[in-house]
Task: inverse folding
């Protein structure tokens, strides 16, 4: 396989940079998060400069925008050279306001497309697991479905799995922890979130193991799972 650079970048609520989905896609002048107001142009430029400095051939993005038009706008305005975009992209249809994406340089890949649903059913369908710690198996599904891409790099095939697992964040967690009345509820929620993280990571591992060990007919030779 030719040498390529694959990187991952959790941009953190990139969707806040843009207008609401009911409006035409455009950058907001400013955005506010957790009581802090930021200049959108400065924030987007810092993110783009980070990407340019790393210079990946393929970039996995977590917490991307909710609309393809918004990702295209970011690339056109901040990741272009001589008026042309450096990257093309795929944006997941799962994740609502925190979608995953793949950015790629067209010249770095011979061919690239989304994996068909029939090939990744174990990453889409529910499965039985215990995320509550109550010793009972329950139907569970990824919080945000993995984005799976099949690429041809030279003469070799590569499958990329971009995963944004369930956040470990507990709403009002500090307040719950400091109050003896609600501390146990905080512990329960924190452990539940971590069980969900583990369940999602293990499901991806099982998928890769099955493909590598159980299906010699698969045209894919290499897998790379990228999680955040």
Result:
């Amino acid at each position: 396989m030719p040498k390529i650079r694959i990187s991952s970048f959790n941009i953190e609520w990139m969707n806040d940079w843009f207008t609401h989905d009911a409006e035409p896609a455009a950058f907001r002048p400013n955005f506010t998060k957790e009581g802090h107001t930021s200049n959108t142009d400065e924030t987007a430029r810092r993110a783009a400069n980070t990407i340019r400095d790393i210079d990946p051939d393929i970039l996995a993005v977590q917490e991307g925008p909710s609309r393809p038009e918004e990702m295209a706008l970011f690339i056109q305005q901040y990741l272009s050279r001589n008026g042309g975009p450096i990257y093309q992209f795929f944006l997941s249809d799962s994740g609502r306001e925190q979608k995953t994406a793949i950015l790629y340089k067209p010249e770095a890949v011979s061919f690239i497309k989304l994996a068909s649903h029939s090939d990744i059913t174990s990453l889409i369908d529910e499965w039985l697991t215990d995320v509550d710690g109550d010793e009972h198996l329950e139907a569970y599904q990824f919080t945000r479905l993995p984005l799976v891409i099949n690429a041809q790099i030279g003469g070799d095939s590569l499958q990329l799995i971009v995963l944004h697992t369930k956040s470990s964040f507990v709403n009002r967690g500090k307040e719950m922890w400091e109050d003896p009345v609600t501390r146990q509820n905080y512990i329960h929620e924190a452990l539940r979130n971590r069980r969900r993280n583990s369940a999602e990571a293990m499901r991806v591992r099982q998928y890769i193991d099955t493909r590598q060990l159980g299906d010699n007919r698969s045209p894919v030779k290499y897998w790379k799972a990228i999680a955040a």
